[in-house]
Amino acid sequence: MEEDVKPFSQACENNKEPILCVLRRVFEPCRRVMEIGSGTGQHACWFASHLDHLKWQPTDVSQNLAGIELWRASCPSPNLLPALTFDIRDPEWPAPGCDGVFSANTAHIMSWPLACAMIERVADNLPAGGVFALYGPFNYHGTYTSDSNRDFDQWLKEADPERGIRDFEKVDQLALSHGLHLFEDNPMPANNRLLVWVKRPQDLI
């Protein structure tokens, strides 16, 4: 039946292995990771099955949960938890106790105020030493890193003026102001980056 067909993103298939190579290293000390904006569920299934030392908690807005659960049902990983409903504007944090957060291709889809709220809420809910990994395209020094990113940004803004590729410096400054210290800036295929921050102890903020 049509409703039983799992959602699919080719981009997830293309980038899952390069992202995993970084996550294996940066999430090594983590034991419970929350994913913001799990989308189709492909990343959750793939990362959980290859990071069996931790529990992977997918989250997304309610309309995407059915698709994520189809992927989870096909994934034999016991460390992949049932998906939880979460919108950045929700007052409650859905997965307290997580020491890692991952999000892919969300900051440019959200409005800038919501992207700021995501970073602030991640910082507020991670413990000292917690890790935040954010994947997607970013501008550097106010400049696109490729013609394809320029075209993509134009497409995003035509669909919704609130969307757009974010400036790395603004994102990192905001993260730092909330106690997230940049740990790595990893180049990824297709002109993307995987930014990794670590939460500083309160007395060092």
Automatic annotation (TrEMBL):
InterPro entries: DUF938, SAM-dependent_MTases_sf
SUPFAM superfamilies for this protein: S-adenosyl-L-methionine-dependent methyltransferases
Stored Gene3D superfamilies: Vaccinia Virus protein VP39
Pfam families assigned to the protein according to its UniProt record, in alphabetical order: DUF938
Designated name of the protein: Methylase
